[in-house]
Amino acid sequence: MTRVAVNPELLQWARERAWLAPGDLAKRFPKLAEWESGALRPTFKQLGDFAKATHVPMGYLFLPAPPQERSPIPDFRTLSAEIPEQPGPDLLDTIYAMQRRQAWLREERLEREAQPLEFVGSARLADNPDAVGREMRRVIGLGDGWAAGVRTWQDAVNALRRAIEQIGIMAVINGVVGNNTHRKLNVEEFRGFALTDSYAPLIFVNGADAKSAQMFTLAHELAHIWLGAEGEGVSGFPGIFPDNGAVETFCDRAAAEFLLPEQELRACWREASRTEQPFLTLARQFKISPIVAGRRAMDLRLVGRDEFFAFYHAYIREERRQKKPSDGGSFYNNQNARLGKLFATQVVRAAKEGRVGFQEAYNLTGLQGGAFQEYARRLGLDLP
To answer: Does the pTM exceed 0.85?
Structure first.
């Protein structure tokens, strides 16, 4: 049995990169401790299985020393003590996949002589974020009270995502890496990210988060697009406040005005404040998280900090107690959010017209063979 000479330090690095403790892999790799100590070498097959289990390119395991991986986009996250500063493989693989989609759509639009999107990079950090939030709302086409007419949070998220795509932004919501339900994205690691480009901007929202929280992340990442290259990056923070970074604070304020305009909130506050749970009343009306509603009321000095934080801590305790796993939903319905109709339609049309090979189309969408054909049919674009 041929065993492979590999630096034990790389095996430990690959495991820790995937946020795995030795015990997490002990059943599958009972000799892992000996591999990491250098007392025993793995076989080539064992090394390949280990690479798959830790989601690391196998070639990395033959390097002389662990590589210094960094996020390919700016990192605006504020992390809790439990989350490593180094981006995990699930986040990295998701960013790389979205960058490939963006690069493809950019070339597609340039070949068709599309015009750049004027709103990308139209804002500056020196601007008033409230004014930017109102401008975002105007461009998206959201009228006063639009959310109150939407039945559920899920319907509101879907409606907002579609509205964002209608102005030319790819808006992706996914709680796993691609379609791999065994690689669930960690909300504690990141909430979302934005990839700015004048021809193919992209927003990604961590779909493992609560639907009401996804609404805020969509709006928050939209503000990143408005900032352009100045705002491209990955977002995430525990609790209710970002870490006072200029970009995150700006996007936070713009998103708050976008989802819960000050004028609308003040107009309905008197009635809402008379209810038993005013923040929940606002949340149902505006289809946002009750925490966002409460914080917005606090920021506008409609309630005091003590009142808000008493609600905040009680709500978090109850939310954690009642949290239930998602059933995953329909595979093909999920593709509307995981791919975005804007991007998927462009790829399917390109494949149908022979401008892109089917294998490339499969790679871009993560859908293979019959699944790609079926999803194309559901988009109303039957393939030969």
So the answer is: yes
